[in-house]
Amino acid sequence: MDGDPSVESELDGFSLVLPLPYRISCIIVLGIWAWGLNLHYLSFLKIDLPSLIRYSSRTSSRTASHHLSTYRLATLLTLPLILSLLLFWAFTHGNAQLVLRYEYLPQSYLFLILLIFLLPIQALSRNGRVRFLTTLKRISIGGIAETHDGKFGDILLADVLTSYAKVFGDLFVSLCMFFSSGASSTGKPDRNCGGRFLVPIIISIPSLIRLRQCLIEYLRVRRGNLKQPGSVSSTGWGGQHLANALKYSSAFPVIILSALQRSSDHSKLGLSEANLFRLWLLAVFVNSFYSFYWDVAKDWDLNLFSSSASSPDYPYGLRRHLHFHTPQLYYTVIGIDLLLRCTWSFKLSPHLDHFNDLEGGIFVMELLEVLRRWIWIFFRVETEWVRNNRGPPQEDILLGDYNGKIDED
What mean pLDDT is predicted for residues 99-117? Predict the structure, then answer.
């Protein structure tokens, strides 16, 4: 809708070139390219990711491979995005008033993404899109399939959604501003659109999904144990699922305290800005380092934090079976994961403390989280492949779903 002239002067240079709807579109399309690269490189390593998520295999040599189908879909989405951007830049010339006026261009592209995913056209990777939408529908209420029905795929997608949480918040802000009178979706993002706490609620939904999945897994283990009264079965008592649920729960204090920092409500609670910042710092520290520990020790089954870190059977802190070619790669990825889990530390620097408040800074943070998740997928899938073909690490047998293999996240 037509923007208020008072908004024009608030547009920064970055938003004039890449307004919010285009930033959302770029991250969505980038994620599809990243998934294709995941499929491609893992297939090169002889790791059959489609079989792990119970996706149908290619029955004919004339049928395009999974990664090629994904690349085709990504290309189909990329070309109109480039065209839309070029038209937008040609029409607006970096003029704030024109940027506000031509908001329908980026919004129409977001509609195109939705349309392509819904169109029943076989040539547009229809089977993959149907599987994605079916899985998304199941997990959107926190559901999770049984192991033989593709539980691992549900876990992967739900974890990816947690990395897109802020993107979903921005998507809501963009649509809210587009349908609000006196506002433009290409103007300065109003992250209070729809209410001060609606965006934080949307951001928390992916963590709620994973939390409920973990609790469902715990209850499944408990029901399995009830069938064997007086003893704990080989599936354990479900403690690892509860610990995983606690990890996702640790995101909620961060989201709530971040929302309070952007509002004046904290004064009504008797909290000064300094005390609120200290609480936020404690919450984000716990969430980041708990999540980092889980990435390394549980999702990737590496022994860096265990008593068996030093063993003659494998490089220090890693494990016996490694599919990636050099141990140095694992150490590098561990370091990258730690750094990208702690991007909040910019706020502790007197020179970078406002970086996360800039639109360009927010975009970079969202891109870095997608990058972290892309890297995480390689090693999470490799770990699942090792568990299925070599068995789980010994210490996980009492905690996971070990019936000849493990499927724990």
Answer: 93
